[in-house]
Design a protein that fits this description.
single chain; 4-stranded mixed sheet; alpha+beta; Ribosomal Protein S5, domain 2; 3-stranded antiparallel sheet; 140 residues; 9 strands
Length: 140
């Protein structure tokens, strides 16, 4: 189950139970506990609008055999991603992004998990030396 506010937060949770509704309640609770904050921006060299409509820079994520690379796209491009992860970007409020994926992307849970892993890395930036990481401060 996915939860999000449509602007900055998204969470993923899974659960099992004998019946459907208790499993959905458990999954929703776990998803709310696994919320992550992301940064948005206009990282495409083709677009100079400066608005928060895409990912701020190229990020990569991994889950099991699935590797995902998110690339910033210019305004108006739309979500050039697989059907399984379109909801993730809608829950976060990203309107334009390119996605490159390798591995067993037919396993929906791994595909979504790799995408969320990549989105969680938008809060971190590396210095030019590549030795230390700087966490981006919350924007008020």
């Amino acid at each position: 189950m996915l939860v999000g506010d449509g602007h900055k937060y998204v969470g993923l949770g899974t659960a099992k139970d004998k019946e459907r509704w208790p499993a959905m309640a458990k999954a929703a609770r776990k998803a709310k506990l696994n919320l992550i904050s992301i940064s948005k921006g206009c990282g495409s060299w083709e677009c100079l609008c400066g608005g928060p409509h895409s990912v701020p820079f190229k990020v990569e994520g991994k889950s099991a055999s699935v590797k995902v690379t998110l690339l910033p796209a210019p305004k108006g491009t739309g979500l050039v991603v697989g059907d399984a992860v379109k909801d993730v970007f809608r829950f976060v409020g990203i309107q334009d992004v390119w996605l490159r994926a390798t591995g067993n992307t037919r396993s929906t849970l791994d595909f979504v998990s790799a995408t969320i892993d990549a989105l969680s890395k938008t809060k971190k930036m590396r210095t030019l030396e590549g030795t230390s990481e700087i966490t981006r401060k919350e924007e008020a």
